Amino acid sequence: MSGTVTPPKANIMQPEALKLNVVDNPPSVLSQLTQETLALTRRLFIQLQRRPSTLVAGIIQPVMWLFLFGALFQNAPQGLFGNSHTYGQFLSAGVIVFTAFGGALNAGLPVMFDREFGFLNRLLVAPLASRFSIVLASALFIVSQSLLQAAVIVVAAAFLGAGLPNIAGLGAIALIVFLLALGVTALSLGLAFTLPGHIELIAVIFVTNLPLLFASTALAPLSFMPQWLQVVASLNPLSYAIEPIRYLYLHQDWGLNSLVMQAPWGDITFGGAMLILLGFNVVALLSIQPLLRRSLA
Amino acid sequence: MPPAVLIQNLQKRYGSVEAVKDVSLQVEPGEIFGLLGPNGAGKTTTLRILCTLSTPDAGRVELSGISVVDNPRGARQRLGYVAQEVAPDKVLTGRELLQLQAALYHLPKAKAKERINQVISLLNLEEWADKRTGTYSGGLRKRLDLAAGLLHAPDVLILDEPTVGLDIESRFIVWDFLRQLRAAGTTVLITSHYLEEIDALADRVAIIDRGLVIAAGTPSQLKDKVGGDRVTLRIREFSPIEEAEKAKNLLQSLPFVQEVIVNSAQGNSLNLVVTPQNDALITIQQSITSAGLPTFGIAQSRPSLDDVYLAATGRTLMDAELAAVGSRDPKAERKQNMK
User: Fold this and answer.
1) Neighbouring residues of B97: CB distance < 8 A, sequence distance ≥ 6
2) What ipTM did this prediction achieve?
3) Which residues of chain B have a CB within 8 Å of the CB of A33?
4) Which of A128, A274, B106, B244 has the fewest CB atoms within 10 Å, i.e. the most exposed one?
5) Which residues, listed in sequence order, are joined to residue B191 by a DSSP beta bridge?
């Protein structure tokens, strides 16, 4: 390496080169917040662009789910899975939600690595308008990635014969994916600032991922489940994202009053499911507040 | 003009470990101030508090008159921090990292572009700026980090062990650069456990040991305080111990010789502390010759900062270093630093 270093030229070191002329009108807090959040988000997108393997895998995996898992139950009697014509159609909603969930669950990993490699310190010694921009940048990145994945799955599902919801339905799917990804990203970031290291974070992700999938309505309807699992699945936020999307796949005419799910404690409408997702976000964001304040204060 | 850095009676403990017991120091604008001490002495903890990465348990810490506790954001705007562990994002290019850094310090876009080009040329990174930092050598990474630390023209540049792990050539480049910074009026605070580094660079120095400042002043003042010159005498390249002892007895009787130690780690050479005088070497050599012993080598020097450290603590920096390595808990420290 010694061949690569040459001493800096002494003559370029002019005192004025080091003086930063104070900006005439200092930018507002909001524009500072925007500037730092966009810069942090840009970093994540550059990483994605140069190391796209995670995203590629994150797109191939759900399509394989649809294709293989759908084929597994292809010969199930018509009508077995509620009103769905095929199991593939039934499964699409589950795969969209499960993919968004998995991606958001991993949101804390890059932050954890930044902590471990000391990159986070670089951010913490900078005069950020608010350190919440670190969280915001991650959330923006993960949510856009989830939306991209969802779009690919919707297209793949259409090719596999699951049909295509109408434009308003697609918008609703985007909103649901957004809400779920945001809430789960918040929780994952909370863990990233709490757990001691990436090994522990990966362990938590590992034990959370599949159980939450199986204890939801992603793979089978509530009516298939024993009573206790129905209770668990009805407590699982994933179900409240899956069922409205499933409804959209089966009904071209839908509204906030449409009945999407029959939980053990009552009927859930489309609008009710959205409110529950919104509530999940509020709880997630509030619960990580103290953690973030402690780590990022 | 307030001092660039003011630390008064700083205390910090981690659990049962008193990382900083009582540290006070003052860095004047425009000087290079060195914080010297073995690993585990409390240097990094002090710097982390100064950089707002950690909060003090007690004491006053100010940067250009701004309290880092009451106004951390104000302090952050005025300091540039170059951490010991260089952590650029391997996937980004040097320029992209600087762009990110510029946004974190809220430089307007046009200004940022200009400043980035300036610091790139200051550190001769033109050739590398658009390559990914994953391809950089240790010296290049450190230069990029220096560039990043200088980007927003901080009042004080704070460097934690800036040359650890660098090859000799890169180390001299960093030294040279820090001197240029001082010439341009930037205040520099560096920590190091390399004596030569502090000796070569620092205008003033504070020696820290086990969380306490044990000596402070210019390197020259500190050396004068220890007193006496150092003389190393080698009778042969590897002297038999009997000869060394004989010479020791002989030399101890000379009036200007304060102390003689037989250094078995250096082939039984003799280490003397002498009252400074012009003919010391000649007198020593004459008395050795008259006793029928040869002289392989003889040298006189001023006391080093290590002698300062030895006089204050009763152990050499090297010994302290070895002891510190054994008693540290890397896992706990990593946790502290991770935040």
Assistant:
1) B88, B89, B133, B144, B148
2) 0.82
3) none
4) A274
5) B35, B160
Q: What is the CATH number of domain B5-223+316-338?
A: 3.40.50.300
Rounded alpha-carbon distances, angstroms, from residue A122 to A49, B56, B100, B149, B252: 23, 20, 10, 10, 56
Please name the member of A32, A118, A125 whose beta carbon is closest to the beta carbon of B52: A125
Q: pLDDT digit string (tens) for B212-223?
A: 998 899 988 888
DSSP state of A162: -
Instruction: List the structure tokens of B82.
Output: 């170059």
CATH class of B228-302: alpha beta
Closest in B96, B106, B173 to A32, CB measured? B106
Amino acid at B90: K
Which residue type does B254 have?
A: L
Task: Return the domain boundaries, chain B.
Answer: 5-223+316-338, 228-302
CA distance B16 to B329: 13
In angstroms, how far apart are the furthest CA atoms of chain B? 78
* Tokens standing for residue A252: 């071209």
Chain B: nearest CA to A18, how far in angstroms? 6
Tens-digit pLDDT profile for residues A79-138 = 677 666 678 888 899 999 999 999 999 999 999 999 998 899 999 999 999 888 988 999
Residue B207, strand partner residues: B36, B215
Question: Looking at the DSSP assignment, which residues form a beta bridge with residue B205?
Answer: B34, B217
CA A230-A235-A237 angle, 5° bins = 120
Residues 34-63 of A with CB under 8 A from B: 35-36, 38-40, 42-43, 46-47, 50-51
Q: What is the pLDDT of residues B24-77, one digit of tens each?
A: 999 999 999 999 888 888 998 999 999 999 999 999 999 999 999 999 999 999
Helices (runs of H) and strands (runs of E) counted in chain B? 13, 14
For residues B61 and B26, the answer to whether their CB atoms sit within 8 Å is: no
CA distance A126 to B80: 9
